[in-house]
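stage 2 :: seqdesign
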């Protein structure tokens, strides 16, 4: 009997160690997505703004880690009422629960990289004309309060979770939330100079480095296996290991289908293979499958991704027509497709309902957009959020960072 008890204890410890390790490695993959966002955005902005966009990405990740450690994780997960609206207002990450499947610290690490992902979405949408320090102040508020509150309502066991809202890995909670914050900022910020004509013309502003943008997309694609696969939370038994395999398969299929669908649509409409649209098609496929990468069959997952790839092309062109300037297509990829992802879940998951999905999407958008709009407005009225016309013309690398990303192109006097 004692030998059996000892064996059971050893197996329990091994499973705890394996699940903790899997959680940490999944978090490391998601952390690597920060590099993907940095490369993607650096490739899709003009060379005169590259250093600043890279500075924003390294700083927003660092700020997110600090603020989520100090207060955000506690707001989202610690000592909250089941089905509630108002979260606890404590600090730090609490203590390890009895019988947990993995360590508390690994859970925090996995969650904090998701917060940084949401903020990275904002970075690309407001690129090339927002003040660096205003952006960083907003980062503090979103990662400390705005995101954790809606995170409590959903993953933290709040009222949206109780209402039956389903979002496996965060198409709404992370991606649509980030896009909602970005939209609020873009509306107050306005378009880049020269983007739109007086008679409704749209003038493309090409990015500076397509190899970097492509590299960034591949890094994001790779990181997404941790994003979706890690959200299964466990790996140490046959059922969960099989589920993780299914999630990886579906995630990859959706991304590939999104890229191909965008390619074909571009060929039909414009007769060209627009690389930027193909890249966004792949990312749209990834966002589309993130709300539920486990339930669909591989074929249905491919279809979900393909529709996302088509949808993002029309979303990007539509936003341009109504003069919402998003240099990297973040609002379309993460917002429009994020909403679509939530609404397609009930087609493959019998536990989800369209009513609960629509309710959750509305609440997340309303909260994040409204709260972000207020913060952006306060910043606009106080320190300002937009650089001067001269700074925008010369590039924010000079005014905000004092360092050129490509100094060999600078004329020395």
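stage 2 :: out
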């Amino acid at each position: 009997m004692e030998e059996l008890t000892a064996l059971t204890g050893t197996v329990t410890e091994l499973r705890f160690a394996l699940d903790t390790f899997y959680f940490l490695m999944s978090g490391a993959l998601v952390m690597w997505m920060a590099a993907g966002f940095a490369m993607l955005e650096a490739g899709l902005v003009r060379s005169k703004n590259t250093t600043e966009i890279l500075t924003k990405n390294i700083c927003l990740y660092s700020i997110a880690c600090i603020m989520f450690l100090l207060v955000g994780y506690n707001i989202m997960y610690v000592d909250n009422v089941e089905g509630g609206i108002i979260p606890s207002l404590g600090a730090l990450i609490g203590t390890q629960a009895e019988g947990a499947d993995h360590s508390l610290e690994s859970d925090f690490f996995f969650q904090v990289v998701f917060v940084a992902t949401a903020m990275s979405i904002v970075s690309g949408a407001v690129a090339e004309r927002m003040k660096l320090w205003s952006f960083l102040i907003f980062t503090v508020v979103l990662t400390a309060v705005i995101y954790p509150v809606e995170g409590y309502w959903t993953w933290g066991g709040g009222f949206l979770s109780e209402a039956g809202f389903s979002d496996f890995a965060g198409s709404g909670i992370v991606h649509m939330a980030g896009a909602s914050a970005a939209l609020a900022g873009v509306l107050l910020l306005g378009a880049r100079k020269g983007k739109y004509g007086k008679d409704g013309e749209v003038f493309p502003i090409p990015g500076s480095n397509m190899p970097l943008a492509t590299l960034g997309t591949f890094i994001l694609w790779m990181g997404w296996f941790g994003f979706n696969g890690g959200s299964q939370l466990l790996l140490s038994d046959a059922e969960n290991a099989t589920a993780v395999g299914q999630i990886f398969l579906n995630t990859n299929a959706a991304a590939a289908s999104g890229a191909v669908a965008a390619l074909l649509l571009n060929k039909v409409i414009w007769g060209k293979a627009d690389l930027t649209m193909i890249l966004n098609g792949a990312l749209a496929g990834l966002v589309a499958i993130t709300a539920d990468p486990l339930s669909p069959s591989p074929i249905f997952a491919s279809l979900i991704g393909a529709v996302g790839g088509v949808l993002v092309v029309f979303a990007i062109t539509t936003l341009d027509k109504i003069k919402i300037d998003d240099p990297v297509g973040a609002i379309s990829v993460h917002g429009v497709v994020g909403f679509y992802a939530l609404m397609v879940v009930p087609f493959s998951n019998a536990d989800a309902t369209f009513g609960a999905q629509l309710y959750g999407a509305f609440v997340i958008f309303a909260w994040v957009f409204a709260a972000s709009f207020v913060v952006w407005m306060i910043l606009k009225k106080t320190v300002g959020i937009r650089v001067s016309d001269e700074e925008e013309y010369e590039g924010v690398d000079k005014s905000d960072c004092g360092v050129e990303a490509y100094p060999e192109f600078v004329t020395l006097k």
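stage 3 :: structure notes
- The mean pLDDT is 94.
- Residues 2-44 form the longest helix (43 residues).
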